[in-house]
Each structure stands twice: as structure tokens, then as C-alpha cells.
């Protein structure tokens, strides 16, 4: 009786490898991710944190409480006196604190299942339960990040304010002509409109522009630098003007047009979230049920998770069970209240620090 050649068996077994076994390349499928420009901007150094720490305190010990943001409206000119004859000692009304109450209304969750038979079959390859759990949690958080980005950008699309400097009402996109001719030279006549609008809207700081389409073509050309026949160093121009494009794969779906973009002024838009299992009273490790929170490996987001063991007896699967995971969070995007600016300047009504642009091709 002849036996099966051992050498052949080893060769067959050697073909069972993971793509990442040898080296994790930059284009490894496990590293695939959409361009999440909205989240990248919200968490970037261009956008200073305003309410994140307050929201964390409110969610401490998982006490579900809304965040109250207090502010005093911009002082108007109704009590301004420009002649001594008009001055008097009469009492005027005191300005009162305004209170804006916010709490997260958006939600995202991703699930996964790991069957016992899978763990058993792959244990010989060193791919045990913990390793598979790590991959499942990472993928669930990646899918969750993409959904968060899409939901927030969709909310911004329905909530961005007026662009008083350009005469555009709330929700209207200001047309900005952009052109790249056959020689590769860009038309830079309108490049300063973003900064001019910001200054005329009484704002300052570096602008974050969420876009794709023509905006990406335009800003990619700016990044080339002085490679043009006019001898203009566009890279230096972009740096001096203080603005940066955050490319976002959700622009077409969320804004309705690939060439639409949003310019967000620093500090006026914030990400915040609420965790159910942040407090020790709600974190649980009992039997086959584990609940808790876990930080996202890429962005400053904290996820709630539930890991539950299902013995699968009701499915006729005998002794084969499964682990079922849920990764979720409540979140939202805070936008500064238009009332903050008061009615001092009639042309800044409906302004909330986010303005829209339509990058047109001429």
C-alpha cells in the first residue's frame, strides 16, 4: 500500500496564505478606505475643538444629558450715540445669555459574526479567535467611520448658511469659475474669492474646503507649484492664502453634485458623540456577554461594543456556537447658531460659518 507523498501535502498547505503574511503594502485591500474629507477636517488642526471636552463630561458615567452651550449675541448699534446732545442717563435693556441645547441624533452600527467552526478550522494557521476579533472590530469601525462621514456631510448639505459676502442666501452655492487649459495652466483670477469672502464675512483663520470634482482638479494643480508658463508659484499662493482642500468621496451623493463644495470656517463646526457604556456601571463582562467602549485606531472616536456568545442550540447546530459583535455610537455635528451674530449687520443674517461653492468649468 503506497502512501500519499508528504512533500506534495506540504506544497499544497503552503498555498494557504493571507495577503498580509509577507508584507502589508500601502495598497493592501485591508488598508482600503474612502476619502473622508469631512471627518479629516473636523479632527484636523485647522478646526479647533470647542465642545468636545464638554460633551465628554456630559457623557461621563453614561449619564445621558444634552449639552448646553451658552453665548451672548454680538452687541448691536442700537445704543450707539454719536453726539453729546443725544447722550442721556436712561437705562437700557441688559443683554441676556442665550442657551443652545444639543444632543446627538445620528447613529451608526455595524455587526459581525464569527462561527466556532471557522476558528477551529483556522487555528492550525495561527489565525485564532483574538486575531479574527481584531480584524472584525477594525473593519466594523472602518465601515462606521465611512457612514459617519456620509451622514455628517449630508447634514451639512442641508444646514449650511448664507454667504453674505457673495450675496448668496442660506443653502445656495456661490459660483466660482475654475479652468485648466490644454497646456496645464490654471486660471487663477478667482482663487482669492474664498479668502475675500471669509474676510468680508468677518471671519479669520485657515479655511477648510470639502470637495471633489473640479475642486480636486483645481487644488491638485495648485499643489504642482510653479510649473507653468506664467512663472507663478501656485503652491506658495495657496499657502499664503490659508486654505486647504479636504477631498471627500461622499460629495456627489451628499451634496448632489460632484462640483459642489463647502467652505468651513475654523471652530464653527464640531463633531460630538455619546457613549452608552462609558461608565463603570454599564461596562459588563459576564458569562458570554461583554460590553464596553473602544477607541478608534484612526480618528478620535470612541465606539460602544457588545460581544455576545450564541450557543446556536435553537438552529440545530449542536455544539457549534458563534460570537456575535455589534459596534455602534450615537453622534452628531454641532454647527454654530446663527443667533450668535445677532442683527448687527443685516447682510450677515442666516450666516453660520459654512458657505457653499460651485466649482464651475468655463
Summarize the model shown:
By secondary structure, the chain is of the alpha+beta class.
Given as residue ranges, the uncertain stretches (5+ residues, pLDDT < 50) are none
Distance between the termini: 81 Å
State the major sheet: 6 strands, antiparallel
Give the count of helical stretches.
9
Explained architecture:
The protein has helices at 6-14, 37-42, 52-58, 116-122, 129-157, 193-200, 213-223, 234-241, 251-255, and strands at residues 67-71, 98-102, 106-115, 173-178, 207-211, 243-247, 260-264, 269-274, 284-286, 289-295, 302-310, 322-335, 354-361. It is flat and about 95 Å long. Strand 9 (284-286) and strand 10 form a beta hairpin. The mean pLDDT is 80. It is an alpha+beta fold. The chain has nine helices and 13 strands.
Key descriptive features of the protein:
24% strand; 6-stranded antiparallel β-sheet; alpha+beta; 5-stranded mixed β-sheet; 362 residues; 25% helix
Could you outline the blueprint of secondary structure elements for this entry?
Elements: H1 6-14, H2 37-42, H3 52-58, E1 67-71, E2 98-102, E3 106-115, H4 116-122, H5 129-157, E4 173-178, H6 193-200, E5 207-211, H7 213-223, H8 234-241, E6 243-247, H9 251-255, E7 260-264, E8 269-274, E9 284-286, E10 289-295, E11 302-310, E12 322-335, E13 354-361
Parallel strand pairs: 4-13, 5-6
Antiparallel strand pairs: 1-2, 3-12, 5-7, 7-13, 8-12, 9-10, 10-11, 11-12
Amino acid at each position: 500500500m503506497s502512501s500519499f507523498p508528504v512533500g506534495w501535502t506540504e506544497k499544497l498547505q503552503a498555498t494557504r496564505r493571507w495577503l498580509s503574511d509577507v508584507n502589508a503594502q500601502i495598497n493592501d485591500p485591508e488598508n482600503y478606505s474612502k476619502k473622508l474629507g469631512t471627518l479629516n477636517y473636523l479632527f484636523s488642526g485647522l478646526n479647533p475643538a470647542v465642545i468636545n471636552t464638554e460633551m465628554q463630561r456630559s457623557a461621563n458615567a453614561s449619564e445621558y444629558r444634552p449639552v448646553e452651550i451658552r453665548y451672548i449675541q454680538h452687541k448691536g448699534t442700537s445704543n450707539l450715540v454719536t453726539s453729546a446732545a443725544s447722550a442721556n442717563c436712561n437705562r437700557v435693556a441688559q443683554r441676556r445669555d442665550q442657551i443652545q441645547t444639543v444632543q446627538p441624533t445620528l447613529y451608526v452600527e455595524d455587526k459581525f459574526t464569527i462561527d466556532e467552526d471557522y476558528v477551529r478550522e483556522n487555528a492550525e494557521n495561527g489565525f485564532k479567535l483574538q486575531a479574527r476579533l481584531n480584524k472584525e472590530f477594525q473593519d466594523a469601525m472602518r465601515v462606521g467611520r465611512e457612514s459617519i462621514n456620509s451622514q455628517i456631510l449630508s447634514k451639512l448639505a442641508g444646514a449650511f448658511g448664507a454667504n453674505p459676502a457673495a450675496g448668496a442666501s442660506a443653502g445656495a452655492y456661490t459660483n466660482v469659475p475654475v479652468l485648466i487649459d490644454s497646456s496645464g495652466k490654471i486660471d487663477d483670477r478667482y482663487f482669492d474669492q474664498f479668502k475675500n469672502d471669509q474676510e468680508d464675512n468677518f471671519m479669520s483663520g485657515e479655511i477648510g474646503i470639502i470637495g471633489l470634482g473640479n475642486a480636486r482638479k483645481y487644488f491638485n494643480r495648485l499643489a504642482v507649484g510653479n510649473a507653468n508658463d506664467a512663472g507663478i508659484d501656485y503652491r506658495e499662493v495657496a499657502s499664503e492664502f490659508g486654505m486647504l482642500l479636504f477631498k471627500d468621496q461622499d460629495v456627489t451623493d451628499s451634496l448632489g453634485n460632484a462640483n459642489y463644495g463647502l467652505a468651513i470656517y475654523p471652530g464653527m463646526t464640531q463633531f460630538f458623540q455619546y457613549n452608552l457604556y462609558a461608565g463603570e456601571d454599564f461596562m459588563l463582562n459576564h458569562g458570554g456577554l461583554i460590553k464596553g467602549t473602544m477607541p478608534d485606531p484612526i480618528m478620535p472616536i470612541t465606539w460602544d461594543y457588545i460581544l455576545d456568545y450564541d450557543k446556536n442550540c435553537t438552529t440545530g447546530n449542536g455544539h457549534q456556537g458563534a460570537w456575535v459583535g455589534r459596534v455602534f455610537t450615537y453622534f452628531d455635528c454641532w454647527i454654530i447658531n446663527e443667533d450668535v451674530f445677532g442683527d448687527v449687520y443685516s447682510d450677515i443674517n442666516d450666516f453660520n460659518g459654512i458657505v457653499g461653492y460651485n466649482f464651475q468649468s468655463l
